[in-house]
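Customer escalation, tier 2.

The customer says the design service returned an amino acid string that "doesn't look like it belongs to this structure." They asked us to rerun it and document both sides in this ticket. The original structure tokens are below, unchanged.
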């Protein structure tokens, strides 16, 4: 049997990892529910995938287990890679069959359950946020002394179906909408509704940022922090990411991330932990992604470190000793931006990206009807820019947003292009590096 690299739901940056595996001489097998993407910067080129195994639903555990067993029996599986939450427990199961380091199928499912994770972190002294399931909260007779709370799926992805509420009336109003699962993307909808429950937890104070890590057989290697740009009219909607982000409390955030990995038994693979970080006081976990950061972050990491980040991802996926010497070198800075269509746009129109942008991508075909909203999944385009310093890349990214053309007209100061962000993103701080 030939040495084989298996990808579960091959999409987005995963194509870079697949190409690296192919370059190493491995057979590439993809198990996919959705068709392989043939356009954009992450298009799957002809000849990359040697076998495509159709998956009816990632929620059908019996079906997927049978497919994984068949792949394992027919191939010498030397590496696997997954980046969509619904596939991660299945990847752990395949890695167990193949004798590759992994986090365990049951534990992976437990870490993906946001209600259970909050309970475990409180038990370990790593969180002080109170929480309840939506079912429990709907039985409340009065609103707790929480101020604002966040309602989100117990199994969430893509920031879908997340709400801020501050009264019982508001809670009951969003409950029906949340449980209806009004998510356009069927892949995400199936995953969210497979669990079905939602979590209500006190909103944490502070700035949203994330700690990006590579975990190699129990040892956590922090790549750095990622800062956020959010939509000014709705700060729940993320519009951009800056890496690396030298926040003044970076060292504290990195240390807490290491402690959380240990408490939750995450011992192998790329991870992203989202934190709320106040100027002072407790740093609180918001989400634990047992995967690499999404969209084009792998491209941003490569730009920042001067590497092809898919190389180290492939090493870890194959259980090899990764070369992490790049962590000791000075970095550039990169920003990944997501773009909403101009306010009032009802159909997807041609988009013109400015010079100097990388990894340009449209997420909607021309002419497709648009929702008219400004939610996370309403973004229609993305790009990456890089520069030597944080202040330079910040300025370049904002200018590139303004200069992007929608149907020949610059986005400029459209209401859907007004962002909110920390002043630290525009500063060349000398302290705060991880």
């Amino acid at each position: 049997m030939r040495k084989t690299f298996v990808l579960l739901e091959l999409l987005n940056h995963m194509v870079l990892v697949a190409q690296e595996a192919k370059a190493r001489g491995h057979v590439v097998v993809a198990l996919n529910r959705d068709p392989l993407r043939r356009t954009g910067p992450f298009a799957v080129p002809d000849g990359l995938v040697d076998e495509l195994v159709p998956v009816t639903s990632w929620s059908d555990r019996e079906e997927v287990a049978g497919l994984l067993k068949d792949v394992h029996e027919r191939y010498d599986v030397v590496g696997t890679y997954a980046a969509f939450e619904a596939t991660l427990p299945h990847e752990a199961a395949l890695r167990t069959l193949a004798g590759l380091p992994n986090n365990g199928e049951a534990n992976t499912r437990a870490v993906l359950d946001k209600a259970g994770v909050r309970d475990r972190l409180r038990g370990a002294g790593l969180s002080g946020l109170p929480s309840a399931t939506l079912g429990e909260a709907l039985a409340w007779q009065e609103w707790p002394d929480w101020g604002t709370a966040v309602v989100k799926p117990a199994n969430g992805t893509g920031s879908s179906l997340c709400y801020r509420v501050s009264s019982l009336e508001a809670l009951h109003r969003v409950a029906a909408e949340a449980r209806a699962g009004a998510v356009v993307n069927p892949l995400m909808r199936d995953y969210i509704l497979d669990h079905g429950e939602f979590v209500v937890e006190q909103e944490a104070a502070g700035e949203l940022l994330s700690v990006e890590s590579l975990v190699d057989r129990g040892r956590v290697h922090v790549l750095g922090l990622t800062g956020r740009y959010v939509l000014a009219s709705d700060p729940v909607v993320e519009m951009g990411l800056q890496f690396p982000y030298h926040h003044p409390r970076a060292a504290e955030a990195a240390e807490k991330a290491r402690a959380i990995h240990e408490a939750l038994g995450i011992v192998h693979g790329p991870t992203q932990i989202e934190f709320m970080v106040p100027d002072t006081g407790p740093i609180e976990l918001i989400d634990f992604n047992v995967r690499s950061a999404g969209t084009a972050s792998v491209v941003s990491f490569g730009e920042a470190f001067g590497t092809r980040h898919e190389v180290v991802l492939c090493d870890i996926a194959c259980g090899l000793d990764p070369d992490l010497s790049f962590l000791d070198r000075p970095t550039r800075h990169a920003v990944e931006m997501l773009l909403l269509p101009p306010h009032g746009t009802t159909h997807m129109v041609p988009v013109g990206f400015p010079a100097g942008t990388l990894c340009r991508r449209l997420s909607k075909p021309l002419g497709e009807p648009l929702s008219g909203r400004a939610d996370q999944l309403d973004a229609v385009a993305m790009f990456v820019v890089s520069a030597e310093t944080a202040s330079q890349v910040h300025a370049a990214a904002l200018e590139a947003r303004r200069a992007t053309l929608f149907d020949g007209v610059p986005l400029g100061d459209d209401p859907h292009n007004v962002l909110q962000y920390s002043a630290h993103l525009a500063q060349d701080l000398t302290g705060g590096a991880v």
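Tier 2 assessment: The sequence is consistent with the input. Residues 131 and 201 are 4 Å apart (CA to CA). DSSP finds twelve helices and 20 strands in the chain. Sent an explanation to the customer and offered a walkthrough call.
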